Amino acid sequence: MIRALLAAILFTSPAFAADMSVFVRNQRSDGVAVELFSRDSAKVWPGGDKVYLIRPKARKSVPISCEPGEHICWGAWVDGNDKVSAGVGPDNDQPCDSCCFICTEHSTETVDLAE
User: Fold this and answer.
1) Tens digits of per-residue pLDDT, 98-107?
2) Strand residue runs (E) in the chain
3) What is the C-alpha separation between 52 and 32, in angstroms, rounded?
């Protein structure tokens, strides 16, 4: 009986999210907007129709909570002009070979946005 109860608890426990950081270095002379998109679900960071705004030549670290092993891609664009974009773009619809990473607990991923 106790084993069955422990097994039920084990299999009904929610998966634990990983906490990690994304460090964005905006090397551009324009401010940029950045969003992060999960390739494994519909999750978007920061979500809620918001974006991370990074001033020209500024750096910003943003904490995210994600599922370990989840594939995450970044999209960035000039603030106010989404036709000038990088990564997967503002709509997560651009091809990109080097703008994705895997969610790993207690890690930091760096995104460099060059001029």
Assistant:
1) 999 999 999 9
2) 18-26, 32-38, 44-45, 52-54, 59-66, 71-78, 81-87, 100-102, 108-113
3) 8
In the chain, what are the domains?
Answer: 15-113 (2.60.40)
CA dist., res. 102 & res. 22, Å (int) = 11
Q: What is the value of pTM for the model shown?
A: 0.84
Q: What is the dihedral of CA 72, 76, 79, 81, to 10 degrees?
A: -130
Residues of the chain with pLDDT under 70: 1-15
Distance CA 102, CA 115 (A): 26
Tell me the C-alpha distance between 52 and 34, whole Å: 5
Q: Report which of 58, 74, 57, 68 is spatially closest to residue 109, judged by C-alpha positions.
A: 74
